[in-house]
């Protein structure tokens, strides 16, 4: 079960980065100003990076045990 959780965490992290790029370049969000799209994309990138760092530190802790 932990293997599934690890793969699911990787999938969610990848999804945050893809969503950040999609919000930034997609014509679907034309009603938002460029600044709002940029701010929202940066938030998604930062949150994806935070989850990646947390997953990486958790993985290192498990390897040390």
Total number of β-strand segments? 0
Number of helices: 2
State the end-to-end distance.
19 Å
Query: What composes the largest sheet?
Result: none
Q: What is the residue-averaged pLDDT? A: 92
**Shape annotation:** elongated
Structural class: mainly alpha
Question: How many domains, in number, for the residues?
Answer: 1
The gyration radius over C-alpha positions equals: 15 Å
- List low-confidence stretches: none
Strand content: under 5%
Secondary structure topology:
Blueprint: H1 2-25, H2 34-64
Q: How would you characterize the overall build of this protein?
A:
The protein is mainly α. It has one domain. Helix content is 85%, strand content 0%. It has helices at residues 2-25, 34-64. The chain is elongated, with a radius of gyration of 15 Å. The mean pLDDT is 92.
Which terms summarize this structure?
65 residues; mainly alpha; 2 helices; elongated
In short:
The protein has 65 residues and is mostly helical.
